[in-house]
Amino acid sequence: MILHLLVPDPPVWLDEGLAEVAAATGSGDAALAVPAARLSWLKLWLDSGNPPIPFDRLAGMRRADFYADPPAATALRYAQAAAMVHWCMSGKSPRARAAFERYLRELRERGARREGGVPAQEAFTRAWEGVDLRSAEREFGEYVRGLME
Questions:
Q1: Against a cut of 0.90, is the pTM above it?
Q2: CA separation (Å) from 70 to 14, 41, 57, 74, 75?
Q3: What's the pLDDT score for residue 27?
């Protein structure tokens, strides 16, 4: 809910990813967490030889597409959104953390400007400019696998 105060109508992947991480992280926990069931689902997907959902595709999804059937695809989107938020916030990848911080700033400014603000997809593209997304996605996949060990 705090995200909605800072960014009206936040991108669905960020909205749901933050909610999942917040729900899995206890109030007294110092470290962020990803729901174990979500993490297991994503790891199974990756271990089956599938790549993560391309970051730019997930970031540009409309709510209707994010929640669309089939249920397994929706579960994968939730799992990756939560794991992406965790990965970006953890600081394990300095470039992901920096891009995530730029993304949040872009979104906050977009929300503050309202009229003529930066669309969420453009904010993502600006924030991740100069980062090879496919390389970052591979790094993310390894990060997810490491969380389950």
A1: no
A2: 21, 15, 17, 7, 9
A3: 62
Tell me the per-residue pLDDT of 59-72, one tens digit each, with 9 for 90 and over.
Answer: 989 889 999 989 99
Dihedral angle computed from the Cα positions of residues 108, 113, 115 and 116, in that order, rounded to the nearest 10 degrees: -80
How far apart CA 6 and CA 55 sit, in angstroms, is: 22
Q: Distance between CA atoms of 99 and 126, rounded to whole angstroms?
A: 9
Helix H, strand E, coil C: the string for 75-138 is HHHHHHHHHHHHHHHHCCCHHHHHHHHHHHHHHHHHHHHCCCCCCHHHHHHHHCCCCCHHHHHH
CB contact at 8 A, 73 and 61: no
Question: Quick one: 19 exposed, middle or buried, by C-beta within 10 A (0-12, 13-18, 19+)?
Answer: middle
Residue 34: which region, alpha, beta or left (left: phi > 0; alpha: psi -120 to 50)? beta
Contact indicator for 88, 99 with CB cutoff of 8 Å: yes
Cα separation, 119 vs 127, whole angstroms: 12
